[in-house]
Write a structure and sequence with these properties.
This protein is an alpha+beta fold. The chain has eight helices and six strands; from the N terminus they run H-H-H-H-H-H-H-H-E-E-E-E-E-E. The protein has three domains: 86 residues; 73 residues; 111 residues, endopeptidase fold (from Nostoc punctiforme). The protein has a six-stranded antiparallel sheet with strand order 1-6-2-3-4-5.
Length: 323
């Protein structure tokens, strides 16, 4: 199914936010303009743009997964069509020989013409020579003709789907590139001391998880301090669904690179029944995923300008899945 995108207008929001930020940053320091308030407001505006970027990132990830699935489906259809074509060619040769043995002369040409049409029913009704074909041979002709038409329709559908999704992916990539540029501009307005810095990389999980969850959490902890980057799935940087996909892949569990698709990747569990390793999902529509580590905390790749980190379960929680 083609991924239908909802139009957003980040430039309109950015124009308003940027204008406000510039006014705040350039405002003379007086008794009525406290620097701490200015920094807080800048951070708030930055957070709004970060949310826009993360949502666009997960839109892009979902569209990319759907595009890859469509390409795989198209490949299967092409292989099937090739096999069907070989069957038709083989049967055509057999029937032509049969027709030639019964009707000397035009039989081969007529039969070859019939087989090339892809719609033999008209010939079956009109040409008395085909009365000599057995019932099974006529049935086989019809079945092969029907199969070829269905394959042609399927291939046309897949081609249309691929074209639509390719357009969606290109649109999303351009949109995120612009949001990333805008966000970088806003972050440059922040005081240098308040900007996100890369922390020491790596950590060790020592909690009670076992089995696949233990392996996934150990892998996730080893990524602590690595930077967020949209569309990234390691090993040097991650977005939110890229981190969870990478961590669980180390345990032999395949997850799609999309928080929304990961929400459908396993059984849902109640918040009261959370176990370390469970996937936590946030916002509606879903555009953030993390891994539960226990004691009300989670490990995740938060957003642009931040690093993989452990934090309390954030607001916006909508559910959990156990891979």
């Amino acid at each position: 199914m083609a991924c239908r995108l909802t139009a957003v207008r980040p430039h309109r929001l950015f124009a308003l936010v940027a204008a406000g930020l510039l006014a705040l940053v350039l405002m003379p320091a007086t008794s009525n303009a406290a620097p701490t308030q200015t920094t807080t407001q800048v951070r708030h505006s930055t957070a709004e743009l970060q949310t826009m970027l993360e949502k666009a990132t997960e839109d892009f990830n979902t569209a990319s997964v759907l595009l890859a699935r469509s390409k795989a489906h198209e490949k299967d259809l092409r292989a099937e069509a090739l096999q069907e074509s070989k069957k038709v060619d083989a049967y055509s040769a057999q029937v032509s020989k049969f027709a030639a043995s019964v009707y000397r002369g035009a039989g081969v040409d007529v039969m070859s013409s019939l087989l090339r049409t892809g719609s033999p029913q008209g010939f079956l009704d009109q040409m008395s020579m085909l009365d000599n074909l057995s019932r099974s041979q006529r049935n086989q002709l019809n079945e092969l003709s029907t199969a070829r038409r269905q394959l042609a329709q399927s291939q046309a559908h897949i081609s249309d789907e691929l074209a639509t999704q390719a357009t969606n992916v290109a649109t999303l990539k351009a949109r995120k590139a612009q949001i990333t540029k805008d966000l970088a501009t806003v972050q440059n307005l922040l005081p240098r001391a308040s900007r996100s810095t890369r922390s020491a990389v790596g950590g060790t999980y020592t909690g009670p998880a076992s089995g696949n969850a233990l392996k996934a959490l150990q892998t996730a902890y080893a990524q602590l301090g690595k930077p967020y980057q949209w569309g990234a799935a390691g090993p040097g940087s991650f977005d939110c669904s890229g981190l969870t996909m990478y961590a669980w892949a180390s345990a032999g569990v395949s997850l799609p690179h999309s928080s929304r698709m990961q929400f459908s990747s396993g059984p849902h569990v109640a918040r009261s029944a959370l176990q370390p390793g469970d996937l936590l999902f946030f916002y509606s529509p879903i555009h953030h995923v993390a891994m539960y580590v226990g004691n009300g905390r989670m490990i995740h790749a938060p957003n642009f300008g931040e690093n993989v980190q452990i934090s309390p379960i954030q607001s916006g929680y909508v559910g959990a899945v156990r891979p």
